[in-house]
Every structure is written in C-alpha cells, then in structure tokens.
Design brief:
There is one protein chain. With 92 residues, the protein is α+β, with helices and mostly antiparallel strands. The chain has helices at 30-33, 36-45, and strands spanning 3-7, 10-14, 51-58, 61-69. Helices cover 15% and strands 29% of the residues.
C-alpha cells in the first residue's frame, strides 16, 4: 500500500511496502519513463480527469511513481468521452 499527497514541489509518496529503484536496474529507461508525465498532464489540462497517479513497477520494485493534478481549490468539470457510461463494481 502507498500514500500519495501533493505538495507544491510534487507528490509526497510513502512506499513502505514498495521499494523504489532506478529503472536501469531492471532493464527500463529513465529517459523513456520521463515521457509519461507530460502525457498525463495533458489529460489534466484538457479537463479529462482531475488528477492522475502513475506507478510503474517491474520485478517487484517501483521504478516510476508520479502524480499530477489540478491546483488545490480549483473548480473543474471533467469532460466525459462520447459513449461514456459509469461502470459499477462487480456484484453491485
């Protein structure tokens, strides 16, 4: 389990059960993983989602963890894609 809280400098993340390592230690590229944040930020900027937490893990280790969100206190309305329908949890 992990906890993500936003600060002015970015996400504050507690990952007691999920050890973080450099991506290259498990055959992944830091440079390529750095391409994720701008893509997620575009979703937020276009009001498609209020915020996104992205976690990439490999071989039981977190190699990338980031969060982007609207500024605290801002008012937003999420745009729903055409044909969007809420999905309820199984069994409900």
């Amino acid at each position: 389990m992990f906890d993500v809280k936003m600060s002015q400098k970015g996400p504050l993340i507690g990952t007691q059960d999920l050890p973080m390592i450099k991506p290259e230690e498990v055959g992944m590229s830091s440079k390529r993983l750095s391409r994720i944040r701008p893509i997620m930020q575009r979703y937020v900027d276009r009001n498609l989602v209020p915020g996104v937490v992205t976690l990439v893990a490999r071989q039981g280790h977190v190699v990338y963890l980031d969060a982007v969100a609207r500024a605290h206190g801002s008012i937003y309305q999420v745009k729903k894609p055409r044909g969007w329908h809420p999905v309820s949890p199984l069994g409900h």
